[in-house]
Specification:
This protein has about 270 residues and is α/β, with parallel strands linked by helices. The chain is built from eleven helices and eleven strands. The chain is globular and about 45 Å long.
């Protein structure tokens, strides 16, 4: 079965819960290119084409990085303009941010943007209105819903949704992130922090379990997870675990992942 592979392209510090001034200072140490180049180098020999959800503000500052992703045949999609949680915006502000991101990315690649992912997977039960806005903006799919029963290391999470791709809001395709069903609960596995926290055997088991049910597993990683030498700063629990735990094991485990499973990008799934 063809599973779904994506990456969120953002700066190494964009997930930190810090004041804007402190984040602005840390963002001056730009490292996104390091992680992206490492990812491209891993995908190239396997001829895997993934989706890269790019923060458009970062793209404005490094258009060459986005062109590099596009030139290798990967899909470029929106990860917002300013990397703000959906929950922090009104519908009008969200629409403005999304349209701005689409304009920036299209201006760089010359290609229409057809997909979106919310920062922190923050399309939740409280912000489902965002799906209507995404459809209004002309996008074909969203990949923001994390159908977990319990939120752990993320602000996102919306229980009660299917584990595989489904249709919402007048034809908008939703590509939810992978979860595992345990004792009646859907728990997060095999993606971002959980890929590093749990042994690789858990990742392999969870993907195989979904595939046996005929469900394609959608996995996502951050570009900074492929930059093991990034700066270390003191973070409160659980953000220190989420960001730094087993960071040096990401690349080795990822090589096992792409050897064990077949992957395509989100656009290919939507187009069938």
């Amino acid at each position: 079965m063809k599973n779904i592979l994506s990456f969120d392209v953002e700066e190494w510090c964009d997930t930190f819960c810090l004041a804007d001034g402190e984040l602005d200072r840390l963002r001056q140490m730009r490292r996104a290119e390091i992680g992206v180049k490492n990812i491209l180098g891993l995908l190239r020999p396997k001829k895997i084409k993934a989706t890269f959800f790019v923060v458009a503000k970062l793209a404005e500052e490094n258009a060459g990085l986005v062109k590099m992703i596009d030139a290798e045949g990967h899909e470029v999609a929106s990860h917002s303009y300013a990397h703000k949680p959906v929950s922090s915006m009104t519908p009008a502000e969200f629409k403005e941010d999304l349209l701005r991101s689409m304009d920036v990315l299209k201006g760089i690649t010359g290609k229409e943007v057809v997909g979106y992912r919310a920062p922190g997977y923050t399309i939740t039960r409280e912000t489902l209105w965002a799906l209507r806005v995404i459809k209004e903006c002309g996008l074909q799919y969203d990949s923001s819903i994390y159908p977990v029963s319990v939120r752990l290391f993320t602000r996102g999470g919306a229980g009660g949704f299917p584990q595989g791709p489904f249709v919402v809001e007048g034809g908008l395709q939703e590509i939810p992130l992978i979860t595992a069903s345990l004792f009646g609960l859907k728990v997060p596995v095999a993606t971002t922090s959980y890929f590093r926290i749990f042994p690789y055997a858990v990742t392999k088991w969870s993907i195989n379990r979904l595939n046996r049910k005929g469900i394609a597993a959608a996995l996502n990683f951050h570009s900074w997870e492929f930059d093991a030498d990034q700066p270390r700063i003191k973070l409160p629990f659980p953000h220190n675990i989420k960001h730094y735990y087993n960071l040096d094991k990401t690349e080795r485990r990822f090589k096992d992942l792409i050897n064990d499973f077949n992957f395509v990008n989100c656009r290919e799934v939507v187009r069938g």
